[in-house]
Design a protein that fits this description.
By secondary structure, this protein is mainly α. It has 7 helices and no strands.
Length: 181
Amino acid sequence: MNVPHKLIKLLYFIIASMGAAALNFLTQIILAREFSLSEFGEFNTYITFLNMISPLVGMGLANYWIREYSKSDNHGNSSLRGSLIFLGLSLLCVLFIQFFYTIYNVKNFIAFYLLSIILLAQCFTELVNSFNLIEDNINKYVLWRVLTPLLRILLVIFLLILDNISLITISFVYFLSSFPI
C-alpha cells in the first residue's frame, strides 16, 4: 500500500470520527434546548454514568483482537473463546454496577434501563469495528462509526417535528439508535 493511499484512509477515518462527534454534539445541543433544566440534568447524569462505566465492558478486548488477529491469518484461534468468556464476565460486573447505581441514584428507571442498552450496543459495535479493521473493510467501519449518531439525530429531529420530546422518548431514541444493524 503506497503512502498516498494510506493518507487517504487516514483522512477518511478522521472525517468519519469528526462527523460522528459533530452529530453527537448537535444532538446534545438540541436536547439542551428542548429539555427543562432538571430533565436535561437527569438525562445527562445517566449518559455520563453509562459512558464512564462503558470501558469496563470488554476492557479493550476489541483492541486486543485487532492487535492479535492482524498479526496472523488465523482468525479462529483458541484465544477467541477465552476472550468471549472474559467479555461475558466483564459485562456481568458492569450489570451489577448498574444495578447498585439504580438503587442509589435513579429517579426514572425506565429511562435509565433504556439508556443502559447503549453499553451492550457499544460493546457490539466495537467488536464489529475491530473485525472490519482486521479485514480491511474501511467502508463498513465508517458506516458503523457514523450510523449511530446519524440515526439518533434524525430521530430526535423527527420527535421535534412531532413536538414529543420527553426523557422517556429520548431514551427510547437512544435505545433504537444504539443498534445500527
